[in-house]
Amino acid sequence: MKRIYLDNNATTAVRAEVLEAMLPFYREQFGNPSSIHWAGRSVSEAVEEARERVARLLNARPEEIVFTSCGSESNALALRGSVVFSEAWNGHVITTAVEHPAVLNSVRFLEKQGVAVTILPVDGDGLVDLDLLEASIRPETLLISAMWGNNETGTLFPVAEIGAIARRHKVRFHTDAVQAIGRVPVDVQAAGVDLLSLSGHKFGAPKGVGALYVRKGTGLTPLIHGGHQERGRRAGTLNVPGIVGLGVACERAAADLDLQVPRIRALRDRLEEGILSRVSEVRVNGHRRQRLPNTLNVSFAYIEGEAILLFLDMKGVAASSGSACMSDSFGNSHVIDAMGVDPMMANSNIRFGLGPDTTEEDIDFVLEILPPIIQKLRDMSPFYSEKAAG
Amino acid sequence: MYSDKVIDHFTNPRNVGIIADADGVGEKVSASCGDRMKIFLKVSDGVIEEIKFQTYGCGAAIASSSMMSELVVGKTLEEALALTNDDVAAALDGLPAPKLHCSNLAADALHEAIKDYQDKG
User: Fold this and answer.
1) Total domains in the fold of chain A
2) Fold for domain B4-120?
3) Residues from chain A contacting residue B36 (CB–CB below 8 Å)
4) Fewest C-beta in 10 Å: which of A64, A111, A303, A365?
5) Does A323 reach chain B within 8 Å, measured CB to CB?
6) Cβ distance A317 to A366 under 8 Å?
7) Pick from A216, A174, A172: which is nearest to A196 by CA?
């Protein structure tokens, strides 16, 4: 059976050229980059080269890049590190209802410590009201955290406009760009970002490596204390192979914006239009235009998402769902809920995340097998037959 | 995550559908995740002659509906009333722990249908 991987928002395969670049740093160049001897020196050079590559992709300076273990750590460092640094435990943080749990739960943690929190609602497309965002800023506001691209729906926030508001009010601006890197241009200068999180495994680097962009002059207290690595912002021996891989992946991501992304966007649109024309009572979740080019989140009335995923999986197709049955908490996706989607529609949302390996044949195969799956499940659903009976 | 029996019953569910002139109809909705099962019965001489179900829910919900229907067809109402959700899960070679308390409602839905039949009687 052919395997079709359409869950690239969950993780991606390590790119061949990334893996190749990493391999020497396990055996031949195994040194600790903090060592001054021959074994450490060459490794240290490779780490700094990777730092330059990450910085170049973001239009940042190398010294503004802090390597971390993942996107969640980057988000935690940005949020907790900012508040702890400020020592303003009566301060205020603004974020949005559709952030990744790594941001939302970090914010809730800070709230328990006494920080005031505003969680902005979103509209049916998953966008925030910028006037409301600006009106939410108080004299004690420390930070605004708003994601670049949503991991479930792909909706893109107008990051540059949020950055301009933050700057006007002299408030720190953090953005979780984990899903955006390699899929849309990300420029920290143009967007007016002070802190930006990214994660390697979402764009062809391995799991276990991420980075936080920290604009020069943005004070942070580390989460991990220890040695002086990363200019005192993150202790711990560097994950050298991962960092080298992240550097190569960033270099390739820049090239892919022109080479791959238009093709992926066309395939995503083919999938979306194909589903809408073949299946009735479907809802596309997310903004139709301001959206990550690889992401399609779609709900099917009368049925439940996990059941759809199981049938897709049996045909070799990997996708994901934010249905209640898929979560530990038995709640629907907080993202889809926040958009005001009817609970039954929310419960059947399926996310397709296309990637560089996705082909037109893959998409056509999904378009062939999906409508009968939907119909089979609808034929079992009491809601469907009651609706048909009027 | 799911046993072969769950996958079998989910892929080829037995007794899906409705009975237009059912003797008893019952349903159960999961408070936690919204799964919904609707059961239709034909009863003759205290025996379940025919059973059909409709289910809205995940793979476990569909498989447990199907397995329940196989377990009780041809059985007396007393036997059917003695069936528990745990019996259904055991017949499926188990369900993942999180599913036991949300999608495993088939016996409850069946009992609602029997109650409906008995109330009419």
Assistant:
1) 2
2) Sufe protein. Chain: A (3.90.1010)
3) 382-383
4) A111
5) yes
6) yes
7) A174
